[in-house]
Design a protein that fits this description.
By secondary structure, the protein is α+β, with helices and mostly antiparallel strands. 17% of the residues lie in helices and 45% in strands. The chain has a single domain, classed as HesB-like domain (Hypothetical Protein Aq_1857, Chain: A, Sandwich). A hairpin with a 5-residue loop joins strand 3 and strand 4.
């Protein structure tokens, strides 16, 4: 079930969207509570070079929101932060959290990806 699509205009007037499913929102909130650090501004999602397909996703807590960041509200305490360069690769993506027998993890369904590795942790555009 999709909760909502969050959009923000960048400095050039272009709308960038990421859809964050309820499963991901709930997990981000749970992890934020577990961290017990009120200085955290949000979970940063980023794209970096690497992996067997060329690019890979990263997730980390961040205490600062940069001027060129796109910020998406998850709750009144925490959000999702995406830098402008990563947003170029993530526009239209869907963020999910999956729990399966083999483990649990965040999953990004990215319409910009032309291929991905077998384990799904890296992609090409």
């Amino acid at each position: 079930m999709l909760v909502n699509t969050m959009a923000k205009l960048n400095n050039h007037g272009v709308t960038n969207m990421i859809t964050i499913e309820k499963s991901a929102k709930d997990k981000i909130n749970d992890l934020y509570i577990d961290e017990n650090d009120s200085t955290i501004r949000g979970m940063r999602i980023f794209v970096q070079g690497g992996g067997c397909s060329g690019f890979q996703y990263g997730f980390t807590w961040d205490n600062e929101e940069n001027d060129d960041d796109f910020s998406f509200v998850i709750s009144d305490k925490v959000g999702v932060l995406v830098d402008a360069i990563s947003m170029q690769y993530l526009t239209g993506a869907i963020l999910k959290f999956k729990q399966e027998l083999g483990g649990s993890n965040f999953v990004i369904e990215n319409p910009n990806s032309t291929s991905k590795c077998g384990c799904g942790s890296s992609f090409a555009v």
